[in-house]
Sequence to fold (350 residues):
Amino acid sequence: MSTGDIQGYDVPAVEQWIKAHIPSLTPPFDWVQLEGGHSNLTYLLQDQKGLKAVVRRPPLGRLLPKAHDMSREWAFISSLAPTGFPVPAALGFCEDTEITGAWFYVMGFKQGRPLHSRDETEVWVSRDQRVTLAHSFIDTLADLHTFDPDTIGLGTLAKKEGYVARQIKTWYRSWEASIEPAKYDDPRAHDLRSYYLDNTPAQIRASVVHGDYGFHNCLIGSDATVTAVVDWEIGTLGDPLADLGYSLKSWPESAADIARTPDAPMAAEGLPFRWELAQRYAERTGLSVRDLDFYISINHWKGAAIIHGVYARYLAGQKSTEGIDLDLLRSRITLSLDRAEEALSRFIGS
Fold:
């Protein structure tokens, strides 16, 4: 890739910084842009000796406060890497905006690929490896939740207690702010919020939580195990069971669940159902998963608020609607609230 095609980086300045601060890499590099990562500008670098690394910085333009926080991502990988947890190696972090206009960091390269669809799972992971895949997926999350944030140097990163209440406050505020521009409200969003606030189980432990842990943010190796967990920009400290609820909220519990989302990466044949994974998580962490459906419900409700906000921005003209099926987007809000109610009914009936 020519340097003129590399967005967001002053290539000579960045390569000079890397040469001065990361002696294991030898510039100049071959630069290849990597897709994904919440629009952060992420490039694969290959040096003169064939060694590979990855450089990452925020997108161009004005950003919301706390959005695309490279220092936060760096804190997670630099603290977790020494523990043996599967994250890329933390090679270097640059806070000098004179170099390329923003903070950036360099991390090691890990083999593997994320999974975004059933087809990708079935192509990348053979039928006889899919139980291995599921077990590695849940074991990795369980291992993350067993770390003491203080012990690994993350104890002051964020508030530890009241995680669920903070999530409810944030996303209910988003829902209310979106009602007028979206021209759409649903009383269930308000009723569910009230129930959650009155019935949130006590937070037993404060753990490192990823916040967006799924196959899309895991690199899966050729042996069907997780080689790296990536995209830590919304990571924080909080209730591990809420993090588990997010990661398992769309994991099927039955063949009927698979039929509802047949293209999801978890819909591939040969994967265990959700409750088996939840029980495995419980055995590995020592945490009870009795209230898992409460956390699944709240994560579906949160998903409805997120989609509601996106829908509102489209209707307000803040985003181009070209190629966007607005009716489908609106229906996803309703579907998320449906799923929230279903999970809450299971919780209440358990």
